[in-house]
Amino acid sequence: MLQQIIVNSLIACCFYFLVALGFSVIYSTVNFFHFAHGIVFTAGAYFVFLFTQWLGMPLWISIVLGIAFGAILGCLMEILVYRPFHNRGSSGLVLLLASLGMYILLQNVISMAFGDNTQSIRTGTVQEGINILGARITPIQIITIGVSIVLVIALSAFLKVTRIGKSMRAVANDPELANISGIHSNRVILWAFAIGSALAGLAGILVALDVDMTPTMGMNALMMGVVAVIIGGVRSIPGIALGALLLATAQHLGAWYIGSQWQEAIAFVVLVLFLLFRPEGFMGKKIKSATV
Predict the structure, then answer these.
(1) Range ranked top by mean pLDDT from 95-104, 233-242, 250-259
(2) Which residues contact 144 (CB under 8 A, 6 or more apart)?
(3) Helix or strand or coil: residue 135?
(4) Is it the case that residue 1 has pLDDT exceeding 90?
(5) Confidence tier at 126 by pLDDT (50, 70, 90)
(6) Span 192-197, average pLDDT
(7) Residue 183: CB partners within 8 Å, gap ≥ 6?
(8) Measured between alpha carbons, how far is 103 from 200 in angstroms, rounded to an integer?
(9) 135 - beta bridge partners?
């Protein structure tokens, strides 16, 4: 039983981490709560469903297209909604409400197009997981763990080494100074939305391959991702990974002792404890002010 709890916690950690990583990339650059990140998570899975079930494309091509269309969706949100508000000098609260409105609108569009029933993008039969040290794990879960490890390394290197990554960090630290230094902030923000949304779409696809999908699945994923970001530290990739691991472990240990219906409540308790005693997270730095 303990081995299975460890494996389940690790798998949940990877799902939370992918959502949290995408959210962190965007939030660190624009400094407001991108609520619609949750619907990009959902849309990635439904794009794959569209390409495989409606258009008859192979699964691997559909996955690549689903990630790409998730990135495009995030970029469209920035260009068509956020940027006009930003150019008008709108507050973070206005952007939050606009983001929430997009989430609700797009969730209803998905419901109208695909229905509210549980859908599946798995093409093969459901098989028993592989036995590893007494715990069961499926091939897609192994892939999820591997993808998460690769993305930790790749994104860390991207932000530290590439010109775009350095520009994203500069805009995150001081947008006005970055503009004065010749960095095109709008272009950098667009890159942040593309990368963050691609990560969200990938996470949604992996979750759908593991446990199927519904139009409302993005909300819970977003909340768990945000909690992982807060308890890990907004701008720290290793911290976010630790935050996701702590959250997933607490939830699955709680599910073992007191029942799975308490998992969301456990996440809330963990969040409140960190907000009270360490609001900057595991590896975050203390800040003087924050934007909603």
Answers:
(1) 95-104
(2) 11, 14, 15, 206, 210
(3) strand
(4) no
(5) low
(6) 95
(7) 167, 170, 171
(8) 14
(9) 132
- Half-sphere exposure (Cβ direction) of 276: Cα atoms closer than 13 Å: 6
Instruction: Name which of 247, 257, 242 is nearest 2 in CA terms.
Output: 257
Report the candidate in 19, 4, 58 with the shortest Cα–Cα distance to residue 207: 19
Taking each helix axis from N to C end, the angle separating 217-232 and 185-211, rounded to the nearest 10 degrees, works out to 120
pLDDT at 291 over 60: no
By DSSP bridging, strand 135-137 and strand 130-132 are: antiparallel
The runs of H, that is alpha helices, within 52-138 are 59-77, 83-87, 92-114
For residues 277 and 228, the answer to whether their CB atoms sit within 8 Å is no
Token pair of 138 as six digits: 């499926």
Q: What is the 3-state composition of the chain as percent helix, strand, coil, each rounded to the nearest 5?
A: 75, 5, 20
Residue with tokens 């994203």: 168
Question: For residue 189, which of 34, 15, 8, 67 has the smallest C-alpha distance?
Answer: 34
- Side-chain half-sphere exposure of 199, counting CA atoms within 13 A: 29
pTM: 0.91
In the predicted structure, residue 289 carries a pLDDT above the cut 50: no
Judge whether 11 and 41 are in contact, CB under 8 Å: no
Q: Exposed (0-12), middle (13-18) or buried (19+): which is 56, by Cβ within 10 Å? A: exposed
Task: For the chain, give the percent of residues with pLDDT over 70.
Answer: 94
**Pick from 286, 280, 119, 139: which is nearest to 212 by CA?**
119
